[in-house]
Amino acid sequence: MSLTVPPVVSVVPSRALVDETFEVAVQNLPPGSPVTLHSLHLSEDEDFWEAFGHYISDHRGTVSLAADFSFGGTYTGKEAMGLLWSMRPVPGSREGLRLRKRNVCSPLLVNISVYSGHVEEGFRQQAPLASALTERWYMGPGVRRMEVRERGVRGTLFLPPGPGPFPGLLDMWGGGGGLLEYRSALLASHGYVSLALEYFSADELKSAEIEFSYFETAFNIVSQHPQVIPDRVGMFGLSLGSVVTSYLAAESSVIKPRCCVCIAGIHVYPRGETLKGFYRVLFSNAHKLRVDENNHEIWRDRLLPLPDDLSLKVDVGKINCPMLLVNGRDDQNLPAVEYAEDMAKMMRAAGKEHLLTRIEYLDAGHLIEPPYSPHFRATTFMKDGTKVEFCSSNNQILYSVAILLWGGRTKPHSDAQEDSWNKILAFLQHHLYSSQTLKAKM
């Protein structure tokens, strides 16, 4: 490719929240030239992630990701954010990787480059025509991060900029344990005081003797914060965090959540048990475990068929707040869609179905994350940096290495992440922000 004026890659805005779109364009290319747009990110675990698309420059010598088609690569078609959501580990990487931001006080840095021709591999072995660096943030300007070590509760509280008061959220992740902050940081960037809760570590999972008073205390830490509107606090859970969310909403006499969001959740829970009871139910059916053609473990059958014994399920008919269920129909980890139908049946019988909103996505999997996050169909199940598989023997939790199949196909799963996040934010806005909220803030 003969160039008289050097090509230029532009990313606008170059600094943005992870759920915001950007515009990527290349100028000063010869008209009708084949080029490859490539993104590269070095994770905090020192793994490289990449995505790329094949384009033909127009008569002006420009390429726009939003306006032009990618004819090949890790995505095809008009995909303005394809260089993010289709990211995958570079060839030769470790198996079962998952990209997660641990330090939310720093940005996720992505280098976007243009190469001559339709390149498939070896990007780091050749010089690009031009490059630009973009910053993707979970924690927006003015958001404050505070460690919580209070009343036995461990976590991180994120406060939106300004004096408040604000609505609040208790944010709980799943069975991988540990402390994950990035969703809470993003929620605070949208105006919610959010507590990212750590509710067990690797050592604690061996016993999992966590009483529900722990979660009630965590909820009260949020609701009693001076910058939180006390009666405008909700709960947000994924996977095991959704189990805890539905249990608290139905059974707690101490807290009254204003609304709940559950992603990939189920309502199996032996009443009166600690978390250990849930794992005992899950792993009592270890013989139902299947593997796919890649020897990735499929767990969803362990909780099928749904139990008829009501003592093994959360009595969701007791729930008195609006609840949003977000599920992927290709979830290979939990039978969340089947359980959502049962939850709807139980709430209908209790005259509470009007409180339930269900969203399902045909080819989405278990791990429905904030928008433009890469799709993880199968990953090593990780706990505080340790690869683990849970199994039970005489009510003991044992450890070994496994790669779990989460499910989903990349393009529809990514579309589901974007659509569901917008609907989650609208749900929270409707139920946690209101005329009373606005009046309290004035």
Automatic annotation (TrEMBL):
Domain Acyl-CoA thioester hydrolase/bile acid-CoA amino acid N-acetyltransferase as annotated: residue spans: 19-150
GO molecular function, one term: fatty acyl-CoA hydrolase activity
GO biological process: acyl-CoA metabolic process; fatty acid metabolic process
Domain of life: Eukaryota
Domain BAAT/Acyl-CoA thioester hydrolase C-terminal, residue spans: 210-433
Active site feature: S239, D331, H366
Gene3D superfamilies linked to this entry: Acyl-CoA thioester hydrolase/BAAT N-terminal domain (2.60.40.2240), alpha/beta hydrolase (3.40.50.1820)
Family: Belongs to the C/M/P thioester hydrolase family.
Protein name: Uncharacterized protein
